[in-house]
Amino acid sequence: MTDRFTDSVAKGIGHYVYRLIDPRNGETFYVGKGQGNRVFDHARGDIGNLTDGKDEQDDDQISLKASRIAEIKKAGLQVIHLIHRHNIPKDAVFEVEAAVMDCFPGLSNAQGGHGSGAKGPMSIEEIIRKYGLPKIDTPPRHKLVLININHIEEPTDRDAIYEQVRFAWRINKERAEDADYVLAVVRGVVIGAFVAEKWLPATRENFGSRAAPPASEMPNRKGFVGQPAPDDIWDLYVGQNGKRIEIEAMKHIQNPIRYWSL
Predict the structure, then answer these.
(1) 158 and 223 in one domain?
(2) pTM for the whole structure
(3) CB 32 within 8 A of CB 42
(4) Which DSSP string do the residues of 35-98 spell out, in sequence order?
(5) Which letter does DSSP use for residue 118 in this model?
(6) 246: domain range?
(7) Greater confidence, 211 or 240?
(8) How many Cβ atoms are within 10 Å of 104's Cβ, its own excluded?
(9) What is the model's pLDDT at position 215?
């Protein structure tokens, strides 16, 4: 099996988006972007190239990807790799990668796709709801942590929003503790505002069943204990049905955490 592009092929395909596929069940377990021979590095499980060059890496997810590759090799098989789209303009490769990632839930990628938090798959009703909502388009007067929670069945259920947003995140504890409020965000829309009274390591000792497998014992992550923000704060940031964030720097791109005025 070919395990390397020649220089002329690498030059010809330019920037590309690829998938890694488990030959045992045909499941796509990783989507990435690259140039040259990056796809082969990942398919081999080359640890030095598994991090995608991002500043903040999710060790749990990197281990998950490496473990999957190791299991495939142990079974005497090889990871299937597929170039999904090539010769992509450099300024479009993030969007293509994100669109492909959105098609395969449950990936072992360390972070979500570029813009998936705000522009990922939505129903027609969600699209209409999002772009018909009031906007937050000016800097807040409070110090805020924004946490993207991707999806929730009932966006008006405060208890359900709280349970999802409070656990468990790779977050700067000192900055989080300095925040006035935590905002829960889904697809660029603020759906909840909470007071975090205490940030704790995400362990079973602190969160009981919330830290049961597969999320068990993640002391490098944090969760919080708190309560809904006062009504005036909730109305300011959430309103009746949510408010959409229009400040570009605060839109979630890949990292689910944003710090606003912190």
Answers:
(1) yes
(2) 0.62
(3) yes
(4) STTHHHHHHHT-GGGTTTT-SS--HHHHHHHHHHHHHHHHTT---EEEEEE-S--GGGHHHHHH
(5) H
(6) 124-260
(7) 240
(8) 15
(9) 47
- pLDDT of 119 reads 72
What average pLDDT does the segment 130-144 reach?
89
On average, the pLDDT of the chain sits at 84
SS3 256: coil
Is residue 256 included in any domain, yes or no?
yes
DSSP classification of residue 169: B
Kindly state the helix (H) or strand (E) to which residue 101 belongs, with its residue range: helix 93-102
Answer yes or no: are the C-beta atoms of 237 and 194 closer than 8 Å.
no
Tell whether 109 and 174 lie within a shared domain. no
Q: What is d(CA 192, CA 59) in angstroms, rounded to the nearest whole number?
A: 28
134 and 73 share one domain: no
**Per-residue confidence (pLDDT) for residue 63, from 0 to 100:** 67
Q: What is the mean pLDDT of residues 86-114?
A: 81
